[in-house]
């Protein structure tokens, strides 16, 4: 009140001084208003500077003495900065009627713009505070992988919507509820305009409630070319950083309308599956004769199995008086069966296979490309690079071991194979007439 009175006295004093200098009344009123406006702007600027320095400085000193990050985030997100602006705005609103006392038509207009600024300042302050809460929650274990951004965006939209209603009410002079009632007729248009936002909001709630995706999850969505880690979940989109460092943006709604693969379960289990086959050339599969059995018994991993299995087969064949002059009679071991046993023993003793998960070697249906021997096992390291190294190491060994069992891996003929075949055929065709002439 005292400040207003001083401002009023100053107004009258400057006006009287201008009149004494012979300035016309109209010009004196205008010059007086400009002088007071300049003084007011200087006062508001000075007050803003002092408020920010004192308030922000005090909070900075307080934050330095605490271990909590919340006060640091308040400063970082400019919450204190916006709060400090309240004091100069209040001074500005109170001084407008005094500065423009000689121009009353301007007072209501300027006060309206000042009120609009107060509304916007309030929205910015609340939004900054919400960002502070979001950043703080993301640093906690409970909310670190939750789509907090989606809910923040929804609240921000609601804030701006309320702010827009209040600003509209200020400029039109109509009640807010009257405007809301009038908008009921335009609800269909609003639903169409905000369709993606509404769908995204519903999808974000479902994604969060059902724990379908978290920040940091590895997901694969082939339809959109996504194969990497989720780095952001917001109201309308999910950002995935692929392993080639590109960014794929997926509409949040499609996470519940389309299928995708989340590798979180694999990462948590501690084991990653290997499911790969070796294609055995069917013509290389045969029975083992005694010499083969004796030779394969020298392989350390299957020595005990070979001895035990050979004894069981011999007992059976002798019991039923089987004629073993033909290996097809009675019971016999095959090279591919022994190879499967070898793979079983190899993966069982491998240091990087997960011993508490499924370990299986199975024979699949023969095809035109051979008979698949499929290895179904889990590695005990889920890291991608380590997984690839383990799998390559296992199959390097098995592919090299195939020949010890007199088996062949099926592969399509290469260009060299075709050329060698034609070369050998042409050589034979040339030798046949020469040999006939010599004879």
Strand proportion:
5-15%
Question: So what's the overall shape?
Answer: elongated
Give the helices and strands as they follow along the chain.
Answer: HHHHHHHHHHEEEEHEHEHHHEEHH
Structural class: alpha+beta
> Which percent bin holds the helix content?
55-70%
Number of domains: 4
Structural Rg? 42 Å
Average pLDDT across residues? 83
User: How many beta-strand elements?
Assistant: 8
Strand order of the largest sheet: 4-3-2-1-5
Low-confidence stretches: none
Sheet having the most strands: 5 strands, antiparallel
Q: How many DSSP helices? A: 17
Secondary structure layout plus pairing:
Blueprint: H1 2-20, H2 25-65, H3 70-76, H4 79-84, H5 86-99, H6 104-138, H7 148-172, H8 176-183, H9 187-193, H10 195-209, E1 218-221, E2 226-233, E3 237-242, E4 247-251, H11 254-257, E5 261-262, H12 264-269, E6 272-280, H13 290-296, H14 303-319, H15 335-349, E7 360-363, E8 371-379, H16 384-401, H17 415-438
Antiparallel strand pairs: 1-2, 1-5, 2-3, 3-4, 6-8, 7-8
Helix pairs in contact: 1-2, 1-5, 2-5, 3-6, 5-6, 6-7
Notable traits:
439 residues, alpha+beta, SH3 type barrels, Alpha-Beta Plaits, five-stranded antiparallel sheet, three-stranded antiparallel sheet, 17 helices, 11% strand, elongated, transmembrane, membrane, MscS_beta-dom_sf, transmembrane helix
């Amino acid at each position: 009140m005292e400040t207003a009175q001083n401002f009023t006295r100053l107004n009258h004093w400057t006006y009287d001084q201008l009149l004494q200098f012979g300035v016309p009344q109209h010009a004196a009123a205008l010059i007086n208003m400009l002088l007071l406006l300049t003084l007011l702007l200087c006062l508001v600027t000075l007050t803003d500077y002092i408020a920010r320095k004192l308030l922000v400085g005090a909070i900075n000193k307080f934050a330095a003495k605490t271990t909590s990050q919340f006060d640091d985030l308040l400063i970082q997100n400019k919450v204190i900065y916006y709060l400090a602006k309240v004091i100069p705005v209040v001074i500005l609103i109170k001084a407008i009627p005094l500065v423009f006392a000689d121009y009353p038509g301007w007072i209501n207009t300027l006060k309206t713009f000042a009120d609009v600024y107060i509304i916007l300042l309030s929205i910015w302050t609340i939004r900054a505070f919400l960002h502070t809460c979001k950043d703080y929650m993301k640093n906690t274990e409970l909310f670190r992988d939750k789509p907090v951004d989606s809910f923040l965006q929804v609240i921000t939209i609601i804030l701006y919507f309320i702010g827009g209603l209040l600003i509209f009410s200020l400029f039109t002079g109509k009640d807010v509820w009257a405007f809301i009632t009038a908008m009921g007729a335009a609800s269909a248009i609003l639903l169409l305009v905000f369709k993606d936002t509404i769908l995204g909001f519903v999808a974000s709630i479902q994604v969060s409630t059902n724990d379908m995706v978290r920040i940091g999850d590895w997901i694969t969505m082939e339809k959109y070319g996504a194969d990497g880690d989720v780095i952001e979940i917001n109201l309308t989109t999910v950002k995935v950083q692929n392993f080639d460092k590109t960014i794929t943006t997926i509409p949040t709604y499609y996470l519940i309308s389309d299928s995708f693969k989340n590798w979180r379960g694999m990462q948590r289990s501690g084991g990653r599956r290997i499911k790969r086959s070796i294609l055995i050339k069917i013509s290389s599969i045969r029975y083992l004769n005694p010499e083969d059995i004796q030779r394969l018994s020298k392989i350390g991993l299957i020595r005990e199995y070979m001895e035990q299995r050979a004894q069981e087969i011999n007992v059976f064949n002798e019991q039923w008086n089987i004629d073993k002059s033909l290996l097809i009679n009675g019971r016999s071991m095959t090279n591919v069966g022994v190879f499967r046993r070898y793979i079983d023993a190899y993966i069982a003793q491998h240091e990087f296979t997960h011993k508490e998960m499924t370990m299986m070697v199975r024979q699949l249906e023969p095809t035109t490309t051979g008979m698949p021997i499929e290895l179904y096992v889990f590695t005990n390291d889920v890291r991608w690079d380590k997984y690839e190294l383990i799998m390559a190491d296992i199959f390097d060994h098995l592919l090299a071991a195939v020949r010890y069992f007199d088996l062949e891996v099926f592969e399509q003929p290469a260009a060299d194979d075709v050329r060698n075949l034609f070369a050998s055929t042409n050589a034979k065709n040339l030798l046949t007439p020469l040999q006939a002439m010599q004879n």
